[in-house]
Amino acid sequence: MNNTYLKIITIGAVFLWSENLNAQLIKKPEQNMNQNKSLQDASRIGRTSGAKAPEFQELYDYEAKNETLADAMFPYQSYLHKAYVIMLEEQNIISREEAKKILIGLQNVDRLAEKDPALRLYMPYESALIKEIGNLGGKMHIGRSRNDMDNTTNRMFLRDRLLDIIGSIIQFRSEILTKASGNLETVMVAYTHRKEAQPITFAHYLTAIDESLSKSLNRYIELYARIDESPLGSGATGGTSWPINRTQVGELLGFKGLVSNTIEGVAGWDHITEFASDNAIYMSSLSRFASEIQLWSTDEYQSAELDNAFAGISSMMPQKKNPDALERSRKAAANSVGQLMAILTSLNAIEYQHSGTRSPLEPKSLDAVLASTHAMTGLTKTLQVNKEQMLKYARENFSTMTDLADLLVRKSNMDFRDAHEIVADVVNQAIAGKKTADQITVDMIKNVASKRNQKLNITDSELQEALDPVKSVVRKVGPGMPAPSAVQDMINKGLKDNSRKKEWLEGKQSDLEKSSKALQKLISEYSN
């Protein structure tokens, strides 16, 4: 995480308004990937004895957390109160002295809420403020409702978590592209329907994953603009007759625009549904990647090996090295789909108004996205690829049969369908004779062709070139194809795209930091 971000080590640190709160962007505790190198637990025995990767541990930690949405949103509520009080004074709804007393009272109640979670809900919090400074505390709520206030703090919370997720995927893409750059000539088999299809390279496969990640980032970035709108000032649903300044208080809280309609301000839920949908789409793609890596790491494939730091053991079977990080990431993906279904179901056939029927996007669901992304980033970086085994499969497992059919079309002037059927018969004969693809001979092909009244004119050297998966890859130089030159173009485009998205992210984080400093400056001026 960027050191300019606001890092909140405990919720209490947010409650205490101080000079150290130098950014509106309220961050979750930062994962220090270096401080836990010796992280151990009782399961680190057998073939995976040694340190568990902190990114892997995060997959366990998020499940064990019991953070409620109210707890997650409270730091933003504390910011909102202060910004709203300043706006009330500047609109001459309350006096400067009243604003000062309320702001000082808010600091005191924040300290109480640090020790008493019950105060993190608004009504008990307001009661504590009134107890602290008298009935003046009730003026803080002029012109607003819990409806618009909760929707505002929820958007602030989601906005920060959205930036966290975007940042994590940008880092994930960086590792994917780095791994691809080191495997431009790692020839392997691409599969369709879990059956051998055609020769590619591992880099070609990884750039497909990168393209999927880029599309997920596009969806998240588009969503940000729809979340970054302030509903504050909508009141319960019909607004207020008080002369509040919705634009000003929204800007103090870092929003770039307003939810225009006051009913939409408290009833709208599509941004939450969209966030859940984007998560489900992204996590489904991540799960598919994890599933494929898990398949390649099986004892039967032996094409990939997980670093011990991302694997687990069996308590009974000494030989086991289980792909736990992959499975837990896939589990997190399933939970993301479940969260989307819960939200959609809660919205089905309810009225278009503020309603407690609507399911929110829970903190744990967002933590699941972050944990699995971090785990898959570290796992990809440390993944060991068995290049020899991958090439062996490509040579032996009939992945070049399309190349062979193309050779027949070029050399014998036959249509592709006839060539397709001749090669299919050759494959059947090879399998029946327990031959691998690289053991197919010219005579085998000519014998099958003659039964179909086809004459062939191919040489052994031409056959061997058609059957060679390395040469097959090199021949495919078109855009998006597996030749190293074409894949390098995709890597270069991916790096440029990822760099642009990183610049966008840093710009949004900078904007939030600037709005935070502006608000803190006003709070300081009003409180002195």
TrEMBL record:
InterPro entries the record matches: Arg_succ_lyase_C, Argininosuccinate_lyase, Fumarase/histidase_N, Fumarate_lyase_fam, Fumarate_lyase_N, L-Aspartase-like
Membrane-spanning residues: none
Catalytic activity reported: 2-(N(omega)-L-arginino)succinate = fumarate + L-arginine
Domain (Argininosuccinate lyase C-terminal): residue spans on this chain: 398-473
Pathway entry: Amino-acid biosynthesis; L-arginine biosynthesis; L-arginine from L-ornithine and carbamoyl phosphate: step 3/3
UniProt-listed Pfam families: ASL_C2, Lyase_1
EC class of the enzyme, as a word: lyase
Keyword terms of this UniProt record: Amino-acid biosynthesis, Arginine biosynthesis, Lyase
A molecular-function term among this protein's GO annotations: argininosuccinate lyase activity
Documented EC number(s): 4.3.2.1
Every Fumarate lyase N-terminal domain range: 132-337
NCBIfam families: argH
Protein name per the record: Argininosuccinate lyase
Organism, scientific name: Chryseobacterium paridis
